[in-house]
User: Fold these one by one.
Assistant:
Number 1:
Amino acid sequence: MTTHGGFEPVFCTIVPPHVLDRLAQAEDPALARPARRTLQRDAFERTQRRLTTVIGATAAAAVADGRPQRTVHDARHGTDLPGHKVRGEGDKPGKDATVNRAYAGLGATFELFLQAFGRDSIDGNGLPLKATVHYDRDYNNAFWNGEQMVFGDGDGEIFLDFTIPIDVIGHELAHGVTQYTANLTYFGQPGALNESLSDVFGALIKQYTLGQTAAEADWLIGAGLLAPRVTGTALRSMKEPGTAYDDDVLGKDPQPATMDDFVRTGRDNGGVHINSGIPNHAFHLAATALGGHAWERAGQVWYDVLTGGELRQDAMFVDFATLTVKAARERFGDGEELDAVSKAWEQVGVRTL
């Protein structure tokens, strides 16, 4: 996502550019080639997204009836989207585990937003959910392009199949929710909030699917995605930002947990995948302080802010934090929810007005 302002569907990937940049410089061609190929493909898809925004895209027919409308396509290792339809809504599982995981992940995302927040699909109006699997060869990413989900199979050296972690599916579809609501600018702190909100709802989808409480959850984004040779557990940790991986090839997880370590950079759209660790950590602190199921109270507050109409496209951390305090008070009163949310932001060094 590189556009600033305006309602523009954008291109969002789960693997940050700085990770692929590092891999592209690896001495081992088996690591460098897939990373370079992925960076080139991402650049192409990002340009395609901008062109589609200019000329307009065909709107999908939506039926707001509280039921998902899922379609999974197979790119057959090509790059034409959406590819060949392999499973539609209500079809029985086939032999391809990747197709089945994508279908289930779309359903889990739909279910969380409907049951926890009363939202009918990512646009709130029954938008059909479309996904493409087996995209390109050795493609080390998954993305939301403003219209659908796309999953690579990974190179098998650093990344495995991108449909394995359900929170990756939820993360990318949550970009669609942000697209249809606050439409946060994808640069600097607003962009980091955009990324953080996708991590928050990706984590909630995983916890909802597993029936986990905040205390039981691992708070990892992308657990199971890294290949065995990688020294790490996931792409990001909401519980302990900066600890997800520390690898000879990937380097060390650069995410800060508090404003004391805020990273100022012009890369990665102003560090959107890096500084998202700060609001991520704030959510984790609020959710674990409250206990129980994180989507019921902390998640509800974050959802209220995202969809409430007061969150500006250029919102900074302080703006978002202030709105969460307001939302906690409006929904739950002056009780433990308000206290947990206020203290969480204080702990990560973000003031509230």
Note: Confidence is low (pLDDT under 50) at residues 1-7, 53-57.
Number 2:
Amino acid sequence: MVLRTPGRRVSARLPDFPWDSLAEHKATASAHPDGLVDLSVGTPVDPTPEVARAALREHADSPGYPVTIGIERVRQACLDWLERRHGVTGLGLDQVIPSIGSKELVATLAQHLGVGPGDTVVFPELAYPTYEVGAVLAGATPVATDSLVSLGPEAPALLWLNSPSNPTGRVLPPDHLRKVVEWCRERGTVLVSDECYLECAWETEPVSVLHPSINGGSTEGILALHSLSKRSNLAGYRCAFVAGDADLVGELLAVRKNLGLIMPGPMQHAMAAALDDDAHADEQHARYAARRALLRTALETAGFRVDHSEASLYLWSTRDEDCWETVSWLADRGILVAPGSFYGAAGARHVRVAFTATDERIAAAVERLSAG
């Protein structure tokens, strides 16, 4: 068997799964008399909206195979949502595909677009680890940098943007986005923007790279990823989509057909219903805003500094010490957070604090932070 040769294992080429290294700190935090406050992962905890559950029930009888491109209903809902909420116009039904969550897209997109050995994939210095995983799986060279100048004359095969950022919550201004679009087009680099936190904004208004003011009215060479996990508490449903350049979307579709990467039919209907309904998303936004305000005040009162964090579902926080010391300090108080080093060397003195826990658990964290 191939697996008997350790050097040929695919997993051997990948970075260690970072969350495994939190086990000891999770055990410490879980031993707190009032229980664990888990602010590490950022998983939704509030109810899935009824509009999505009703659609799932209505379409639960689904004996046939769904189509890879997605039913027209869900693709139109994606386009309508992009236009209604984010001013994205001019896209057609052939420019969007639903996916089984956004992580599988991030992990496979480079490979499915033909990126391979000898190619370079660029992603932010502080970034979701799966960008690197996707580059490594494709056999490409991963490069973490925020500076296009540092790349010199090189023409990467693919460049990832992530605005709003996970983990920092930073939002890239429109002028910067326009410059990146221009830079990529000059070099023939595919630009992919991970915009899964686009509706989780607090102090600014993020703009999609699909917006005509950013791309000049053309999506050539551009893709954007969106997810309903955070917006609509649909993480368990695995509902996301990719949209943009028709040729790139068509290539992804051709590959995905062969691999059977198809969002289940009932989930497509649930996704369409959730995208069509803004009321539940606005309610969820208000819940997160309240939790964010409480937690940020408590962190700052306890001596933390919160950097960036103008969007996303995290507070990028520091005590100006090694991130693992901060993780340990919080774990002793029953609070589990993610060390910034999970997201790159530049995060070594920060921790990522999610505010996706319940109101009761956020209140518990606030009380513990206030106690010092």
Note: The mean pLDDT is 94.
